[in-house]
What we know:
Elements: E1 2-11, E2 14-24, E3 29-33, H1 40-48, E4 55-60, E5 63-64, H2 70-75, E6 78-81, H3 93-100, H4 108-118, H5 120-124, H6 135-147, E7 153-157, H7 165-180, E8 185-189, H8 192-198, E9 201-206, E10 209-215, H9 216-219, H10 223-228
Parallel strand pairs: 3-8, 3-9, 6-7, 7-8
Antiparallel strand pairs: 1-2, 1-4, 4-5, 9-10
Helix pairs in contact: 3-6
Amino acid sequence: MLRVNNLHAHYRDVHVLKGISFEMSQGEIISLIGANGAGKTTTINVLSGLLQATSGEVQFLGEKIDNLPAHLIVERGLVQVPEGRQLFPSLTVLENLEMGSYLSRMHSKTNLKRVLNIFPILDERKRQLAGSLSGGEQQMLAISRGLMACPKLLMLDEPSLGLAPLIVKSIFQTIQQINISGTPILLVEENVFYALSSSHRGYVMEIGEIVIEGKGAELLTNEHIKKAYLGI
């Protein structure tokens, strides 16, 4: 459902993506892993239309999208949950969720029921200001706001960032549940163990290039990954 071919991207004079290629199919969780600065967030910003590629091609559901503006990419069902959550702190939980359904209002009631079933704590907090939530609750809200847009593919950028270990475990369990319920997920994550443990396949990025790819479980046993990312 997603095909990225020979993608290059720059920030001014800095060559950030250097010809990366990967693909994913319906039903998968795919991880892009690597150290900070490897180009992971740049990759999904290009896929989202927030950054223009210098060259290369992105196809989503058989359609070329690399020159489309961000709002049209969201309309096609490619939805990003950004790093740092980027909620509207002065709006309530419910208002933040309603913002997520801006382009899918006809399904908003059904989607709202779904996300509150996934994250019951948000139902309890729905009249509370988003800025007053804990870090874990804010991440739940950010993921839920993405789901309100009816994604055909959901991209999560660093969902474990700044969270306590028990909350990280819970978030990744929920990511797997969302996938099992029918939503493919492209995961950008520095927590390599949880990312690969949760993924069908993974791609390792280093300095703007994909250097290793394989099944998630197999990559966990790769000697380079064990030494460089798992401290083994």
